[in-house]
Structure formats: structure tokens, C-alpha cells
Amino acid sequence: MLGVDPGLTRCGVGVVDVAADRTARLVHVEVIRTPPEQALELRLLALGRGIAALLDEHRPEAFALERVFAQHNVRTVMGIAQISGIALHLAAERGLRVGLHTPSEVKAAITGYGAADKRQVTAMVTRVLGLDEPPKPADAADALAIAICHAWRSGPVAPVVGSLTPAQQAWRDAEARTARR
Known about the structure:
Layout: E1 2-5, E2 10-18, E3 24-33, H1 40-58, E4 62-66, H2 74-93, E5 97-101, H3 103-111, H4 118-129, H5 138-154, H6 166-180
Parallel strand pairs: 1-4, 4-5
Antiparallel strand pairs: 1-2, 2-3
Helix pairs in contact: 1-2, 3-5, 4-5
């Protein structure tokens, strides 16, 4: 499961394995950063390339993204919406199941309380994943929380033994098309 906490300056990306019994294991976490003074199109390009590289490296079975929510700062909402669109495109291109979750859904899934603060979410992510120390910055913990939330809400992906999942088949087909070019 790959989760994304979208942002133009800091975009958290977390990859977790979640078993059928809901136990979760950290695979990878990072925050992709872009400088605020950089041109918007270059920031979106860098973020898209970063997410694409992680999708290609970890080949998740599903993809989760924090849903854009209403804010008073239109500029912030637009930036989040733009990188969210790129992330959704990258997931769809790879044939991944996609889940969109509001911040309150993620908080409720992780802490049991939809109005939990960032400190509480980080503490529970640390506990759920059995980490020695909390993931930092908060964008990293949020990305992991989004991935865990989606896995817990959607259940495990159960491929048929000996066959490819739809996401794996889509990837294989895309790679074959690229190789023929």
C-alpha cells in the first residue's frame, strides 16, 4: 500500500505492508520537497517524478491519497489539488486500486478519534508500525497513516495463486508496450 499526503512544498509518501490480521510493517517513507520559489510546473514535475519512481520501485497493490478538503487559503487548496491530480494519474496509469480519504477519516481510522491532532496521529502510526522513533516530519507520518487507513478500510488485496493481480498485469502490459517502442 502506498499513501500520499499531497503538498507542493512537502509531499509525504509512505509504503506499508498490511497483513490480513491488520498488522502493518513499514517498507519505506520519505518526504519529497520542492522549493517555494521554483516555478509551479517544475515543482509539479519534480513531485510527479518522485512519486512515479517510488511507485515503480515498490510496486504497491493499492494507492491511497488524502482527499482535498475545503480551506480558506485557495492557493494551498489549488497546490494540493494539482499534485493530487498528478498522483492519481500516476496510480491510474499503473492500474492501481485508488482510495481517497479525508483527514478526519484517516484520524478516526488510526486513533479512533476524527479530530485527533498531528501528535496523536504520529504516536499511533509509530505504535502501529512498531517503530523505535516517530517518522518525521509530520508529512511522513501522515502519508503512512493514509496508507494504513486505506488498507484497514479496504481489506487486503488477495491475488489468485499463480496469477498476476490487475495492477501487476497492467504494469507488465505497459512495460511490454514500452519495450516494443
